[in-house]
Write a structure and sequence with these properties.
The chain is α/β, with parallel strands linked by helices. 36% of the residues lie in helices and 21% in strands.
Length: 673
């Protein structure tokens, strides 16, 4: 028996052939769940003749009742002439507090100030928060001098399933293997699972976690065209996609004037499209968002409001992931005001969109899947359950996970198991697969936090312990295995790696110095040094080498050469300083035509007279060096007082070469004892 036959046999009337959706979708700018609601009424069968009749019926309904924006005047005329007419449109409502009435607005029909009965508002709160697609019967009564529209709502029926039998759903799930069920769920979103690698299939499933897990915070960044926002816009009447970026606290959280809860109180999932454009009009918007993401509640005025909506942030990330990992962090597409460790630490998952291929025609399925409205209902029902304790039966989380990490991992595991095993018939291996995915997803967040926030987020060596075997299994993020910034080969004389500090914000980053030395008369040029402080360091380094070069080599003369020194701000920290000693070592290396020891980073700097300046927060410097691929660190003796604060596993990655003064630093950097 094929999977299609098995699915239709178990869920007759609740599945649809997905190519029918594509067939009808063209030309009708309505969400897929609206189309499949209609297909479910007329074409939820495997009988080809009935399918054909059903598709024609749906097309007829859309042709007659769906309001196309360019035909709105025709539809309005039809309502007027006939007195009553049924339409399919998206309808919004708002309170006119001056008149103490609710007014409706129709998206495609373009009519406003239509009086809507309060009973509909009480029954369908989403009318006030983003609107709903509905089948609406409109009547036309013209009253002279009336403030309101002559259109009147006789009947309003939101497009959603009238009833759902959860127990039947659970019983039927038991008839499928995990692999079959995963394929069914993916096909239900319109994708064809046989066209994707296993890791991409898990990512497609993970996109659905916010629908089954309350207060789940997630982002997906990746190339354009990978379908990042599709599920949040098209597949459920319980999610809303905010496009255009700008929003307000009143819209998203709470309107103090109207005393109404915003989108988080009316939708299960609030997704933000194009994260780079997110902007709050209110100064406290991001802080309120952080509070909500942490606890599922927020304070507004005297109100303490609870809500369950999950947040999803989707956006594009440009360029090579390998280069971004080496030079920046994978959360850089967010607006600058959101680049905050406290904000990102509340994320439970980061889906790597670059691991999902760009959509092509063959990626869309022609097979059977759940009617999306039906799937939306069973996912919503699963919000009432918690599967996070499934981990405890078989595994224990490693010591590097803090409380937020544990919470994130458990919520992701719970979400994955709900989607794949809603009947709770999971095995140890099923839990292991979900756990490893969850650990990697959270570690991806922590790796970025480490780059943004330093040693506070050093503990990223996530692991879990198999309780029956006693073994500890570590996980890593695939992108971290990219080639390092510092090559393993011996570099040309004069090439030096060091760590600069931005004088304005204290951010640290890897700096590469490259020196060209030719015969000349002591002329010195430089590029890449972008602020007055570091240019002053260049002058001081030149003065120091002119006065002290004889201590390095009795035969060398600074004025026998011309120099061009280039600085590369590899990790884009902007302005940088504290590299005077590194400039001095670069010049000595270039003059002597002797390379530094390979994979070395120079720490510390010096003052105008050659006094050594140590590193503030040594562990942060060593972390950057280690992440960049350094195996050796040239470290000032003065920094050794901080060694006790450096984690042992970080310290063990380096050969420490200790120097006492600038001359000692040169000899040891060149490997001359």
């Amino acid at each position: 028996m094929s999977l299609n036959e098995k699915l239709t046999q178990n869920f007759l009337g609740k599945v649809v052939r997905k190519d029918l959706t594509k067939l009808i979708k063209e030309g009708a700018n309505v969400p897929i769940y609206v189309l499949e609601y209609l297909l479910g009424m007329y074409a939820a069968t495997d009988d080809e003749e009935l399918i054909k009749e059903g598709v024609n019926k749906v097309k007829e309904i859309l042709a007659k009742n769906y309001v196309r924006p360019d035909e709105k005047e025709i539809v309005k005329s039809r309502i007027k002439e006939r007195g009553r007419y049924k339409i399919i449109d998206k309808i919004f409502a708002k309170l006119n507090e001056k008149e103490n009435v609710y007014e409706a607005e129709f998206s495609n029909l373009g009519i406003k100030k239509v009086i809507i009965d309060e009973s509909y508002i009480k029954k369908y709160q989403k009318l006030l928060a983003g609107g709903v697609w509905a089948i609406i019967t409109l009547e036309y009564f013209f009253e002279e001098n009336s403030k309101y529209s002559p259109f009147h709502i006789e009947e309003l029926k939101p497009i959603q399933m009238p009833n759902f039998d959860f127990e039947e759903f659970i019983a039927k799930r038991k008839n499928f293997t995990r692999e079959e069920w995963m394929d069914i769920v993916i096909r239900s979103t319109g994708m064809e699972p046989t066209q994707f690698e296993d890791n991409a299939k898990w990512h497609l499933i993970a996109r659905l976690i916010p629908f089954v897990e309350n207060n789940y915070n997630m982002c997906e960044l990746g190339p354009r065209g990978t379908g990042k926002s599709f599920v949040y816009k098209e597949l459920s009447p319980y999610s809303i996609l905010i496009s255009g970026g700008q929003t307000t606290v009143a819209n998203l959280f709470y309107n103090l004037r109207e005393r109404t809860v915003g989108l988080v109180g009316s939708w299960d999932v609030v997704a933000f499209d194009e994260v780079a454009g997110i902007k709050f009009k209110d100064k406290d918007g991001i802080q309120i968002m952080k509070d909500y993401m942490e606890s599922g509640s927020f304070a507004r005025g005297k109100q303490q409001v609870q809500a369950k909506a999950s947040f999803v942030f989707v956006g594009n990330i440009d360029g090579s992931i390998e280069n971004i990992v080496k030079t920046s962090h994978l959360l850089s597409p967010f607006p600058q005001e959101m680049i905050d460790t406290a904000f990102f630490d509340r994320f439970h998952n980061y889906i790597p969109g670059w691991e999902i291929p760009k959509m092509r025609p063959e990626f869309f399925t022609n097979e059977y899947g759940f009617i999306t409205d039906y799937m939306a209902e069973w996912m919503r029902e699963l919000q009432k359950y918690n599967f996070s304790n499934a981990i405890d039966k078989y595994f224990k989380l490693g010591r590097d996970l803090n409380q937020r990490d544990v919470k994130a991992v458990k919520k992701t595991v719970s979400g994955l198991l709900k989607i794949l095993h809603p009947d709770e018939s999971y095995t140890k291996d099923d839990v292991r697969d979900a756990l490893e995915y969850a650990l990697i997803a959270r570690r991806r967040i922590k790796e970025q936090l480490k780059k943004i926030g330093g040693m506070e987020f050093y503990d990223v060596n996530f692991s879990y312990i198999d309780l029956s075997e006693g073994s500890e299994i570590r996980v890593s993020v695939p992108e971290s295995s990219a080639k390092t910034l510092i090559p393993s080969d011996t570099l040309p004389p004069g090439t030096v790696y060091t760590i600069g500090v931005n004088p304005e914000n204290g951010h640290k980053g890897l700096i590469r110095l490259d020196l060209q030395v030719i015969s000349g008369s002591g002329k010195f040029e430089h590029t890449g040094f972008n602020n007055s402080e570091v240019k002053e360091e260049i002058k001081e380094a030149i003065s120091f080498i002119q006065a002290n070069l004889h201590r390095i080599s009795a035969n060398a003369n600074f004025k026998n050469y011309d120099y061009h020194l280039k600085a590369t701000d590899i990790q884009s920290i902007g302005k940088f300083k504290n590299i005077e000693l590194s400039i001095f070592i670069s010049l000595c290396s270039g003059i002597l035509q002797k390379s530094l020891l390979p994979q070395m980073v120079i720490l510390g700097s010096m003052s105008i007279g050659g006094a050594i300046i140590g590193s503030q927060n040594l562990a942060d410097f060593m972390q950057i060096a280690g992440d960049s691929g350094a195996k050796r660190i040239l470290i000032p003796a003065i920094d050794m007082a901080q060694i006790g604060k450096v984690p042992a596993d970080l310290l063990s990655r380096f050969q420490l070469i200790i120097y006492s003064d600038p001359i000692d630093a040169v000899f040891k950097a060149l490997g001359v004892e």
